[in-house]
Amino acid sequence: MTTRRLLFGALILSTLCLAVGSLLRGFIAGAFVALLFGALGVVSLVQRWRWLIGLLFLIFAFYSAILMLLQVPFYLPVLAVALMLITWDLEYFQERLEHIRSPETARAVQRYHFLHLFPVVAGGVLLSWIALVVHFQLRFAAALILAALVIFLLSRLVAYLAGRSTPPPQGTP
Amino acid sequence: MSGRGFFLALVIFTLLLIGLATLNGGVIALALPLVLYFTAAIYYRPSVPRLSAQRFLSTDRIFPDTPVTISLIIRNEGPSLEEIHIEDALPHGLELLQGNTELYTSLDSGQEVILEYTVRGKRGDYRFSGFRATYREGAGLFEATSPVQASHRLIVRPRPARLKPMRIRPPQTRGFAGPIPARQGGAGVDFFTVREYQSGDQQRRINWKVAARSEADLYTNVYEQERVADVGIILDAREQSYGDLPDHPLFEKVVQATASICEGYLNDGNRVGLLVYGGGIESAFPGVGKTQRQRILQVLARARPGRNFALETLRYLPTRFFPPRSQIILVSPLLQADVDVLISLRALGYAVLVISPNLLLFDAAQENKAPDPLALRLALAERALLLQKVRRAGVQVIDWNTEVPIEQISRRYSVRSLAVNPTVEASR
């Protein structure tokens, strides 16, 4: 039930972010279109049209990019994308959750999922905020060192992931 | 990576491309929550789950449409799994009655979970091989699938009807007492011959009428011994015998009838063997008793009409499968080319009984297959001619209109007097 409420809440809030962003720039038709897509999203959640939720995610991301180009306050498109990401994730999660027969297991899986999802999305929003608010000048040498550091860290990450890559499937465990 | 992973990558690249094309850092910053989400999914990328499983069936030999409960006990032999999708493969032909063949759950290390469901099915030999376990990280962007073995077999056997076996007279019988006339004098019920009185003969067996005609000698009635015999049953499973249809509904009736016939002869103590001749040759070697019944029903459970160019005619029938001078019962709609083979079987010394389900009448009775009356008449005349040819070779033939149950046919042909010359009666 919590998942369902969060799912609808995230979609409605995401739609509102886009509509308010459009209204702030006087783009009334845009706000209307955003609300229309939001309503379509609600219908698709009720009707379980999973493919449409995916399509709306893409449309919302694209529309957020347009709002960003229109110089709308940055937190609105960022929040719209983050909330739509939550909608897209929870819609898929809810379907799997319905197949779990034991209520205790369902609650445990739900808690575990939320503990992973929300910090990651919050972290993403924070990163975007830092990227858009904090401005600093870098010298070329500093940028070069930073780039080298990033490449090194990335290669370490790849090596780490390769180390825990999946072994070949066994026929009989 | 799953389809969702590719989709998310598409959204991220769309935002990055728009940002680069418009030289707008804000748009690129929009992609950051998605990038972090994707990175977290990579971090929690699953490894192949290590599971062991055992499958239990409430019973593994059933009759059609009997419900069977299948329990699958799955144990996690590896690290804890947050969310696992178990999908059991139901063999084609089984119908799910209760429960679910899929299960989403979380499994701690060493924990067990039970997947239970009820199925039923038509006649067949169903093999459960294993199931598929898919482990996904929370976002569902990456998944690892592993097949897990949990084999079992469910045999849905045809349900034999209780019937009185048709009277047969094989040239040779076995040593034990039974219901089949042995063509030898001795203790029995049917009159066999008269011989001169020998000391020790029972007085009530003296044939006084014959003795009255003789001046000095007495004569004794001799009765025909009744023994058990070897009965070889051949089920024709050639696709062309059933109008070239691999799933002709008549075949089910024929299998059912064959099961009933086998059961009837086995219950009388005969040694019964079965040969299914069609896409291949499947057999149950001649035997007696309940074990043999199980073997025969198991072979019949697997029987399917099939096409094999090497076995298009009965010419390659493995006659050595049947003991010499035994009784052969062929259950077949019969094809023109089969006549010669039946004649040669008679020449080899076998007694042959053909139970021929009438495919023409069966098809004509189907609602959507009503043929032209004249065409049906001609086809029936052709069939009658074919059966006449077989009868002339000394083969007993029962032309079975499948609208009449096999029990009724069997009752009609189990009458003792027909055993003298069943060919005449069958041809009426």
Reconstruct the topology from this structure:
The complex is a heterodimer of chains A (173) and B (428).
Chain A: H1 2-24, H2 28-47, H3 50-69, H4 75-98, H5 103-133, H6 140-163
Helix pairs in contact in A: 1-2, 1-3, 1-4, 2-3, 3-4, 4-5
Chain B: H1 3-22, H2 25-30, H3 32-43, E1 51-57, E2 61-62, E3 68-76, E4 81-88, E5 94-99, E6 102-107, E7 112-121, E8 124-136, E9 143-156, E10 177-196, H4 208-213, E11 219-227, E12 230-236, H5 249-267, E13 271-277, E14 281-287, H6 289-302, E15 327-331, H7 338-347, E16 351-357, H8 359-365, H9 373-392, E17 396-400, H10 406-413, H11 422-426
Parallel strand pairs in B: 2-9, 12-13, 12-15, 15-16, 16-17
Antiparallel strand pairs in B: 1-3, 3-7, 4-6, 4-8, 5-7, 8-9, 10-11, 13-14
Overview in brief:
With 173 residues, chain A is an all-alpha fold.
Structure explained in plain terms:
The complex is a heterodimer of chains A (173) and B (428). Chain A has 173 residues and is mostly helical. Chain A has helices at residues 2-24, 28-47, 50-69, 75-98, 103-133, 140-163. Chain A has two domains: 1-98; 100-173. In chain A, 82% of the residues lie in helices and 0% in strands. The radius of gyration of chain A is 20 Å and the shape is flat. The model of chain A is unreliable at 165-173 (pLDDT under 50). Chain B is an alpha/beta fold. Chain B folds into three domains: 51-156, Immunoglobulins (Immunoglobulin-like, Sandwich), CATH 2.60.40; 191-223, no CATH class; 230-417, von Willebrand factor, type A domain (Rossmann fold, 3-Layer(aba) Sandwich), CATH 3.40.50. Chain B contains eleven helices and 17 strands. In chain B, a hairpin with a 3-residue loop joins strand 13 (271-277) and strand 14. In chain B, helix 5 packs antiparallel against helix 6 (289-302).
